[in-house]
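hi! just following up on the protien thing from before. the input was this:
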Amino acid sequence: MLADLLARNADWANAQVTQEPDYFSGLAAQQAPEFFWIGCSDSRVPANVVAGLDPGEVFVHRNVANVIHSADLNMLSALEFAVEALKVREVIVCGHYGCGGVKAATEDFPHGLADHWLEPIRRLARAYAVDLAQLEDPEAQRDKLAELNVVEGVRRVAETPIIQKAWRAGAQVRIHGLIYGLKDGQLSDLDCTIGPGHFNAKDTA
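and the predicted 3d structure came back as:
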């Protein structure tokens, strides 16, 4: 119930002030996150919680299955603000195992608007069909597809005019790909980091 949520908020806020009287005044005075996190909307994967970060340490954009659409103005606006205004230099694309969006992208029945949103994942599934077929377990196939979606997301973020502009200006922005395990709470690096000098928009022409 909403009343319970508000009560828990009041308890939390009071506890924070008791432990650190200047906690909220410090947060209100400045936003200086080190990371920009592009993650899944899944309620089980809150960025600051799974990364062990406090409020103010990570700037967050989330959507279904952490898909990077080149025309997603919401994501692009957040990326631009993070890189140009907040001067964030570590961008993270984070997916997770057991992703419902990835599962939906592999199913044959309609999911409404989600089907349009998840089309990039279906394209990846077709492109890597041979590799995925080597994994006999459907859950393992979906988890591998979740990893591929992250790697593709890192590449697509690197392609954006926002990142290309930042690199031309000498900003040391790096884009990382992580995957989160719901069953063990662990973040894993997918070793697909792209930074200045490692990528050029002409490579995709």
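The beta strands are 35-40, 58-63, 90-96, 174-180, 187-189.
The longest strand covers residues 90-96.
cheers
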